[in-house]
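User: My instructor asked us to take a sequence, write out its structure as tokens, and then describe one feature of it. I'm not sure where to start. Here is the sequence I was given:
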Amino acid sequence: MIRDAALVAAKDLRLELRARVGMGQVLPFAVLVLLLFAFALDPDRGVLERATPGLFWVGVLFSSVLVLQRSFGVEAEDGILDALRLSGMAPAAIFLGKVAALVVQLAVLEVVLGVGVVVFYDAQPAHAPLLLSVAATATLGIAAAGSVYGALSARLRSRDTLLPMLLLPLLAPVLISATRGFEVGLEGHAGGGWSWVALLGVFATLYLALGAFLFRPLLEDA
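Assistant: Let's start with the prediction itself. The structure tokens for your sequence are:
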């Protein structure tokens, strides 16, 4: 299963590197979102500083929808989902591979956005281990839930509008927890932040378990 998951993840990452959609479209979009927030809230720097964690994760969520639409849309149109279904790989391995590829892409996105909030918002990462732990668990949860709903909406004509409507409400607990954890990490008081990491870990584990269980029927329906 690990070998098959690694093959699927490598395939997704190669497709992304060749298409360069992430570098050419998603990353500029994410940076533009940060800039627009900065322009809108710049007259009151206090509000901008307090809103930095939430704005960061809103940018991540919006950008992750674009990544998911690209990933599953291409596979549905080119028949890759059918090929995966007939490949003999375990559906759980396919799911884990797609999650791993999305984690890598979202990690790159978050690094760019992290530099953006430091430059544009003058944010100071006071407790880096907590911030990295929050980012890792939140990213895993986003990738797991996104892979499930990406497969669910892949063949639908209205997937471009349906995917955000299905995914974003589900990820609201992740958004809230990640924002609270980042608030603690930016303030430097890490003691209360680890509870948010634990909560994000629960969400990520739940999404991974449900995805591994549900991906077989989702793949067959797609």
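For the description part of your assignment, you could build on this observation: The CA atoms of residues 72 and 150 lie 6 Å apart. Try explaining in your own words what that tells you about the chain.
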